[in-house]
Specification:
The structure holds two protein chains of two kinds. By secondary structure, chain A is an alpha+beta fold. Chain A is 21% helix and 31% strand. In chain A, the strands form four sheets. Chain A has a six-stranded mixed beta sheet, with helices on both faces. Chain A is elongated. Chain B is an all-alpha fold. Helix content of chain B is 68%, strand content 2%. Chain B contains 13 helices and two strands, in the order H-H-H-E-E-H-H-H-H-H-H-H-H-H-H. In chain B, strand 1 and strand 2 form a beta hairpin. In chain B, helix 3 packs across helix 13 and helix 8 crosses helix 10. The longest helix of chain B is centred in the middle third of the chain and has 32 residues. The radius of gyration of chain B is 26 Å and the shape is globular. The chains are: A alpha+beta, B mainly alpha. Chains A and B meet through helix 2 of A and helix 9 and helix 10 of B.
């Protein structure tokens, strides 16, 4: 039994899909994204059935890539998101040619590239450690790839100058990488890869070494550069906030394959599995028993029946409901059908983080937006709990 | 609270004792640091037994030769240095004498060939070592240093056994159907001995320059369009450059003054500077000239080291002139 996204009647059903295959966004296009990515176009990137197995130190086998298929559209900002060891970096390295695949194919447009040596592939990588050549200046680092192409000197100079301007480093062309700040090194790494004018730019957690403020700034920079150059970006990260804010589409990886592929809205609002809902943002999971009623599928929260889907949307039985903390409203207990006891209250500035214990003993985390007045919020006190219809989703355990 | 206070007091008392010692000012000593008093014995030993002989040699080189036998006469003379380049014939004419310079040339050639071959062999070995797991790397470093555990003389005699007329090398030649040949007692055998002796001195600094090399740099170069040979030439070789410079110093300098290998493997036919100097204190009984030759080598070596360090600084490489 696969995912049922019953909260949004507009979304097509995605039941009865093979559990091994990638699930989600390909069949459930997200609403609201202007440029809807289709299947790989003339120069889109397409991975089919990619397999890669590593032998672990203990002699066991680790399936780093377990039959990955995905399509990246031309000019798309595509994010590979997942916890460490989920295979996202292996996939990126396979696209770059630094990690040979055990099985599967990689196409760029109609050209099969997975059999080409890395230096012949039309994609370039921004490494997590930046991998800047320490013995070369900023200028020489950026020119490195162009010299390998044996471009005429004037063309190299022009391209390097353009790249320096693009990443705002025109003042420091003769410095060595060790004389640069982390953010500047990051820009050099980006400029060096972009100078090659790749069909696809591969970025391996490029911002993970930067502090939070700098990272925010570079996220904006990267989006700007991607818009200006129109180059397809494949961006690996384990930071879900970064993925949501930057990606046109996100592939959430788990155990060597995508658990869900979709737009940030798809992933956040309509997670197909407990894993995705848990990995992206903060989520309450409630065990419930689904019953089929005339007006649709109904679950229960603290004994209160809650509609979770349209008629004929799924089967009855035990299930897990996922509810985002910001989708729960605390009210005056007298006005609510469902009541709970407020057991924790933390002031966070932007919101109040509360924990409410329901009559059946399950706990809900709730975010209360400002203004925090009203007086009904006191630790130990009784509160009314209201879950807006359609915002409690059924997720599969995986 | 009492514990830390008493410990602090103890430390202070210790410091006070150090400060009260005669011999002038000493800065406060932090925990885990030792005062200069503790280093003094080693410094004294170093000065007396390292710098001392050098000073003696430098002084001897400007003294005179006694009428008969070895030793020196305490009378200033630059004759030893003149003797290096010029010779007086029976009539009393002073002629340019190139015999000793030729010996320097031979030494320089042997040392240069040794250094070049050692680095050529050591670079691939060192690079290969860095790709192994850290456990295997430690083991390989141990293997490289095994020759240091045995006396150089013994190891050089082993080469005599290998290269002699009825030795292992000739046995192999015969086995593959080639005529046995004289392998020992020539400059080739000397070179083999020198390369064998100094190879670890090339491997270790190059390995230590490459150890911890970030192979993502190699991947980056590959990704940017460099071929495999280009990756080695443009990224890995520059990373090893500091180690290579150290290796040049560590191989060339001792090989230049080598003594054992030309005597045992060259059979006395190969006269390198080291043998020339030894002869001055032995058969020739010309101590001032032997001392002058040593000083000339020392000055040349210092100039070379200075040039190497300048070069290293200009290319911002870390060079160590010792292991």
């Amino acid at each position: 039994m696969a995912a049922v996204d019953l909260g949004n009647p507009a979304a097509p059903r995605s039941v009865d899909r093979a559990p091994a295959g990638p699930v989600g966004g390909e069949l459930a296009p997200g609403a609201g994204k202007p440029a809807k990515p289709g299947p790989a176009g003339e120069a889109g990137l397409s991975v089919t059935g990619a397999h890669k197995t590593f032998r672990s130190a203990e002699g066991g086998e680790v399936h780093a890539l377990d039959g990955v298929s995905l399509d990246v559209a031309l000019g798309e900002f595509y994010v590979l998101l997942g916890p460490s060891g989920c295979g996202k970096t292996t996939l990126l390295r396979a696209i770059a040619g630094l990690e040979p695949l055990d099985g599967g194919e990689i196409y760029l447009g109609d050209e099969r590239i997975d059999l080409l040596a890395p230096h012949k592939r039309p994609d370039n990588t921004v490494f997590q450690s930046y991998a800047l050549f320490p013995h070369l200046s900023v200028w020489e680092n950026i020119a490195f790839g162009l010299k390998m192409e044996k471009l005429p000197k004037a063309a190299i100079a022009a391209r390097v100058e353009a790249m320096l301007a693009l990443v705002h480093l025109s003042e420091v062309p003769s410095r060595r990488p060790s004389q640069l700040s982390g953010g500047q090194q990051q820009r050099v790494a980006l400029a060096r890869a972009l100078a090659k004018q790749p069909a696809v730019l591969l970025l391996d957690e490029p911002l993970s070494a930067l502090d939070l403020k700098l990272r925010r700034g570079m996220q904006g920079e990267l989006k700007r550069i991607q818009r200006e150059t129109g180059i397809t970006f494949v961006f690996v990260t384990h930071d879900q906030e970064e993925a949501l804010s930057m990606g046109d589409r996100i592939a959430v990886f788990k155990d060597g394959r995508p658990a869900q592929i979709g737009t940030p809205e798809d992933i956040y609002e309509r997670p197909v599995s407990r894993f995705v809902a848990d990995f992206i943002g903060d989520t309450n999971f409630l065990e419930t028993e689904l019953t089929v009623r005339a007006d649709g599928l109904v679950g229960a929260i603290g004994g209160l029946a809650v509609p979770v889907g349209s008629p004929g949307a799924g089967a009855a039985g035990p299930a897990t409901l996922a509810i985002r903390p910001e989708n729960i409203v605390l009210t005056d207990p007298a006005e609510a059908e469902l009541r709970g006891r407020l057991v924790e209250l933390t002031y966070m500035g932007t919101d109040l983080r509360c924990a409410v214990e329901l009559p059946d003993g399950q706990r809900l985390r709730v975010r209360v937006p400002p203004p925090f007045g009203g007086g009904h919020l006191a630790p130990g006190g009784e509160v009314g709990v209201v879950v807006a219809p359609g915002l409690a989703k059924v997720v599969v355990d995986s | 609270m009492t514990g830390p206070v008493s410990a602090g007091g103890g430390a202070k008392r210790g410091l006070g004792r150090l400060r009260r010692r005669p011999g002038g000012r000493r800065g406060p000593v932090r925990p885990g640091q030792l005062g200069v008093a503790f280093a003094t014995p080693a410094i004294l030993v170093g000065l007396v037994f390292t710098l001392g002989p050098v000073i003696v040699i430098a002084v001897f080189s400007f003294l005179s030769q006694p009428e008969t036998g070895g030793g020196v006469v305490y009378q200033f003379s630059a004759e030893a240095y003149r003797h290096f380049l010029f010779q007086e014939d029976f009539v009393g004419n002073t002629n340019l004498d190139l015999r000793y310079l030729r010996s320097f040339g031979l030494s320089a050639f042997q040392a240069l060939a040794t250094t070049a071959v050692c680095i050529g062999l050591a670079f691939p070995i060192a690079l290969w070592m860095t790709t192994k797991t850290s456990r295997v790397q430690n083991l390989l470093v141990l293997v490289v240093t095994i020759p240091f555990w045995t006396n150089l003389l013994v190891r050089t005699y082993a080469w005599i056994l290998l290269l002699s007329d009825r030795g292992a090398a000739n046995a192999v030649l015969e086995a593959v159907g080639l005529a046995p040949r004289q392998l020992l007692y020539n400059s080739g055998a000397t070179l083999v001995g020198l390369i064998y002796t100094f190879l670890p001195f090339a491997i270790l600094p190059i390995y230590s320059a490459l150890a911890g090399f970030d192979f993502s740099l190699a991947e980056a170069a590959y990704d940017l369009g460099a071929r495999k040979s280009g990756v080695i030439r443009r990224v890995i070789w520059p990373a090893a450059a500091g180690g290579v410079m150290s290796a040049v110093a560590l191989c060339f300098v001792p090989a230049f003054g080598a003594f054992v290998q030309p005597v045992l493997l060259g059979g006395g036919k190969v006269l390198m500077v080291g043998n020339l100097i030894a002869a001055q204190y032995g058969e020739a009984r010309n101590w001032p000239f032997g001392a002058a030759l040593s000083v000339i080598i020392l000055v040349l070596t210092l100039l070379g080291a200075f040039a190497l360090l300048r070069l290293a600084k200009r290319s911002s490489q870390k060079v160590s002139l010792a292991i």
